[in-house]
Here is the input.
Amino acid sequence: MKRVLRLGVNIDHVATIRNARGGGHPDPVDAAAVAAKAGADGITAHLREDRRHISDADIDRLSREINLPLNLEMAATPEMLEVALGHQPHAACIVPEKRQERTTEGGLDVVGGSAHLASYVEALNRAGIRVSFFVEPEAAQLDAARALAAPVVELHTGAYCNAKGAERERQLGRIREAAAHAEDIGLECHAGHGLTYDSVGPIAAIPTIVELNIGHFLVGEAIFCGLEQSIRHMLELMNAARGRVQ
Ligand code: PXP
Here is the structure.
């Protein structure tokens, strides 16, 4: 079956560079407009508890000024739920969050946290915001997401991206199995974290994955070739890999 593979561009690290000097440049909302021009299907932004990159004002402007679906990455906290319900993004991806981490280091423990997470999924579902859980590629995590009535899971590709040689193949196998399991139990499957030109092909080739969320590499690569070009090239690689399996 022919399926579309969407790209959500994560613009957090445009805000990281802006915040290094405390002014308004570079503006992540301008970056989102460039992503739209380059052919991205959505914008992803993580409003962290410590506001280290994206700010509340950014979420407000992304919601009002950008004509692409917004995927709000958020921790399962009352504060973030209020932000989501207030802004009504197209989607919300629930992620684990630790203050000390440099980036989202692992997937959310939906199995262990299901009692806490249930009311968040319920409130977001009720508001018509598409909920996903960012999880390790493990069947038990997917089953727990399904049991909570979350319609989508995003598989954490960090371990795959960081691995080399045989270990990378093993990690890829875990993602393939989890993506197949997602389809079997009726979950829409996304993937992301750490993806680069080098690592995206095998993930894009997995037919049951319908969306990739990519940020840090695209923003870094933009230093050398510009953001529009880095996004266009990523889309070419995704489409080429997906085209080979259709
Ligand atoms: N998906 C999720 C859920 C994330 O938390 C992140 C990082 O914020 C990404 C995708 C994008 O990861 P990267 O910036 O490494 O491409």
Remarks:
- The two ends are 7 Å apart (CA to CA).
